[in-house]
Amino acid sequence: MASLTGATSHLLPSATTSATSASTTARLAISFSSSSSSLKCIRSSPLLPHIFRYQKRALIGTTSSGRFSTLASPKCAASDPDQLKSAREDIKELLKTTFCHPILVRLGWHDAGTYNKNIEDWPQRGGANGSLRFEVELKHGANAGLVNALKLLQPIKDKYAGVTYADLFQLASATAIEEAGGPKIPMKYGRVDVSGPEECPEEGRLPDAGPPSPSSHLRDVFYRMGLNDKEIVALSGAHTLGRSRPDRSGWGKPETRYTKDGPGSPGGQSWTVQWLKFDNSYFKDIKEQRDEDLLVLPTDAVLFEDSSFKEYAEKYAVNQDVFFKDYTEAHAKLSNLGAKFDPLEGFSIDNNPTQGQPEKFVAAKYSTGKRELSDAMKQKIRAEYEGLGGTPDKPLPTNYFLNIIIVIGVLAILTYLFGN
Ligand code: HEM
């Protein structure tokens, strides 16, 4: 992990611990009591455990009131929805310039995929909690190369202090899928971050690519996350994006005719020809296994060997709509695994227009200019018109008007007669 130096060192607690001084601590204590945005900023930093250790030392003995406990245990708050939306735009720009879609998807998956449904306590249960930002977890064998994804996202994290790492990783992954032509994933946000490296899961919770029995290994790992066979197959379809690099995972060729020129940093072996396009070609290609330049890991091949997996893989190979539907559900579920949400139910950052709700009255809409009538109003007019015997396409019959004129005439005569 020679790359954990230079630009990245500021991401990692070990490189910065000694820089935390007593004067910094005093300033931070003021920030905590005066501003919630400063609190959010500090809350999400990998430096947090060190900050608190110093802060605790500074405050112990200075007060016997409840003030200490309030300062030492600030309430974790959700990410800021507006900042999340802006961060999403920045991620889109990043994708356009660096073509890093695949590695952002892998980052989100590896943060969430440590979840163990048999452990109730957070964060011991693992999952989407931002723990993958810490060096100790980045150094796990399965995470080789993911420090590069963190390097790409850190400037966005620095810009939006009100966004947690846990949310940012999942936002980046879902945005990458969508921007690569994949389905829109109904995501929720508000994931709370773990605060220190001691809260990272132990190594070994993510799947191996070449275990002795791929099908039982996949079931062991994914069932532990609470996912089923359909979800295993659908999620594996994310390998339609990206490449494997021998210098990272040990799998794949150093380069192929599909990867030697990039885009992004050249090299590696992809599962599909167009490895920046999210579609169902992964299932077609691993079924056929005809192209030496395309990768098939043992855990990919088993999707067409195991009878239960095969049922879904066959379906996805011929029907992209079914794949997209199942992938969307499985991805949304994966992104929530193990997460602690604040607020508890999480929140969406997608504008959900007034679907199913009555239209709000806005005076300006009716006050000026010539406007198109609403469908409801058109229907009402049509009903009244038809009640009189006409239709909007066919004028009222002439004799109808004649009848009215006769009635009015008779009434006028009667009024005249009786009036006299
Ligand atoms: C089923 C078990 C899985 C195994 C054994 C596995 C294994 C691997 C391996 C060995 C690599 C190559 C890493 C490298 O050398 O850089 C890789 C890359 C990748 N994986 Fe998986 N993976 C699995 C499931 C998933 C899932 C569930 C997702 C997402 C939902 C995913 C998304 C990706 C992506 C997008 C890449 C490409 C990364 C890049 O190009 O930088 N994988 N995976």
TrEMBL record:
Subcellular location: Plastid, Chloroplast
Keywords: Calcium, Chloroplast, Heme, Hydrogen peroxide, Iron, Membrane, Metal-binding, Oxidoreductase, Peroxidase, Plastid, Potassium, Transit peptide, Transmembrane, Transmembrane helix
Pfam families given in the database record: peroxidase (PF00141)
Listed GO biological process terms: cellular response to oxidative stress; hydrogen peroxide catabolic process; response to reactive oxygen species
Keyword field contains Plastid: yes
A Gene Ontology term for the protein's cellular component: chloroplast
Cofactor needs: heme b
Region Disordered, residue ranges: 195-218, 238-270
Catalytic activity: 2 a phenolic donor + H2O2 = 2 a phenolic radical donor + 2 H2O; L-ascorbate + H2O2 = L-dehydroascorbate + 2 H2O
Ranges of biased composition (kind: Basic and acidic residues): 244-260
Membrane-spanning segments: 400-419
GO MF annotation terms: heme binding; L-ascorbate peroxidase activity; lactoperoxidase activity; metal ion binding
Major location category of this protein: plastid
Taxonomic superkingdom: Eukaryota
UniProt similarity note: Belongs to the peroxidase family. Ascorbate peroxidase subfamily.
Name of this chain's protein: Plant heme peroxidase family profile domain-containing protein
Organism: Solanum commersonii
Lineage: Eukaryota, Viridiplantae, Streptophyta, Embryophyta, Tracheophyta
